[in-house]
Design a protein that fits this description.
Elements lengths: L1 H8 L1 H6 L2 H20 L4 H21 L8 H18 L1 H16 L8 H13 L2 H13 L3 H21 L6 H19 L5 H22 L17 H4 L3
């Protein structure tokens, strides 16, 4: 215990115990566990796991919708502008291209892989939810990593479940998680004077709606380019100042 407390007081220790870094390692751990359990699982069982995971993702999104102070007008404007921005820069295609590049680098010829699909789905699941936003903000403003620690455990389990059905691509989402949560943590520390509970509530609800869209895609009900709407999450920072 004394060693851990001493570690937390050092610069290196603060980095290693930050929520973003812990989340990074637990996603990797979850992926490795998923690969271990994946061996010998029939395709029919993998599809059932995927469907079950999609329902869990849907539940996560639904539970984040009911935030006090959510403003429907702000959300409409954010989704309209965010979707427009995402389409203009074609964010969905760019992220998918990263996944395909990873797939080409790490998959074997004639091997049936879902590396790109796993990378994109896991990145959305781990990076746009309410816990990502709130946890990163708490970490950046007050140094409180408790929310991100809780999220890390959830993501570890989710990574194992996703990997069992979608394969090794999930592990690359650990880098997305580190970059996005780390970036939000640093950003929160800089813009803390203008962050209010009202702004955070709008960001949470938008993130939750994107999680629901991801779940619908996983269930093969829709083919929404969810990544193109991700810029909408940050727009309340601008709109709510006016």
């Amino acid at each position: 215990m004394e060693f851990i407390e001493t570690l937390n007081q050092t610069a290196v220790g603060k980095i290693l115990t930050s929520g973003a870094v812990v989340n990074f390692f637990l996603v990797i751990l979850g992926t490795l566990l998923g690969l271990l359990f994946k061996k010998g699982i029939p395709e029919k069982i993998r599809q059932a796991l995927m469907t079950g995971m999609a329902f869990c993702v849907l539940y996560i999104g639904l539970t984040g919708l009911f935030e006090d102070g959510a403003n429907i007008l702000v959300m409409i404007v954010c989704f309209a502008l965010g979707g427009l921005l995402g389409e203009l820069i074609n964010l969905d295609k760019r992220v998918n291209n990263i996944g395909l590049w990873i797939e080409n680098k790490f998959s074997k010829k004639n091997e049936d892989t879902k590396i790109a699909e796993g990378f994109v789905a896991a990145t959305l699941l781990f990076c746009v939810g309410a816990m990502t936003i709130v946890g990163s903000i708490d970490s950046g403003i007050s140094g409180d990593n408790s929310t991100l620690y809780s999220k890390s455990v959830i993501d570890c389990v989710a990574a194992a479940a996703l990997t069992s059905s979608m394969g090794i691509g999930v592990i690359f989402a650990s880098l997305s998680t580190l970059v996005i949560e780390g970036g939000l943590t640093l950003l929160a520390g800089v813009i803390s004077p203008i962050l209010t509970d009202y702004i955070i509530a709008q960001m949470q609800v938008i993130g939750s709606l994107l999680i629901i869209a991801l779940a619908l895609n996983m269930l093969k009900i829709t083919k929404i380019k969810v990544m193109n709407f991700v810029p909408a999450i940050l727009l309340p920072l601008i709109l709510c100042l006016f």
